[in-house]
Design brief:
Shape: globular
Largest sheet: 7 strands, mixed
Number of helices: 0
Strand content: over 45%
Structural class: mainly beta
Length: 119
């Protein structure tokens, strides 16, 4: 069974940091481009960051560039991570993990983890 399980969300003050994790099961992890996508209250989905199959290439939305860092571990954990620093209230959202196999357009979603940035 395919599963993407996010963790690491929570409540943090502005300027603080969180590290999100997405553990994956049931598919060939290194066949997939992985991304983080978020949804703020009352808004649509916003793509945040992506990483190619082996971690050599990373992508960031302009709103998070320089503050967030995406990484992945294909060798030990089959997980993708999002280090979030200098958090702002506008980063408050549910963060979802997404996997895409480009050759077949097969894609999977996690259930999300809540991040709240507030004083």
């Amino acid at each position: 069974e395919v599963q993407l399980v996010e963790s690491g969300g929570g409540l943090v003050q502005p300027g603080g940091s969180l590290r999100l994790s997405c553990a994956t099961f049931g598919f060939t992890f290194d066949d997939y481009t992985m991304s983080w996508v978020r949804q703020a209250p009352g808004k649509g989905l916003e793509w945040v960051s992506g990483i190619n199959w082996n971690g050599d290439i990373t992508y960031y939305a302009s709103s998070v560039k320089g503050r967030f860092t995406i990484s992945r571990d294909n060798a030990k954990t089959n997980a993708v991570y999002l280090q979030m620093d200098s958090l702002k209230p506008e980063d408050t959202a549910v963060y979802y993990c997404h996997g895409l196999r480009i050759l077949t357009s097969t894609n999977y979603w996690g259930r999300g983890t809540q991040v709240t940035v507030s004083s």
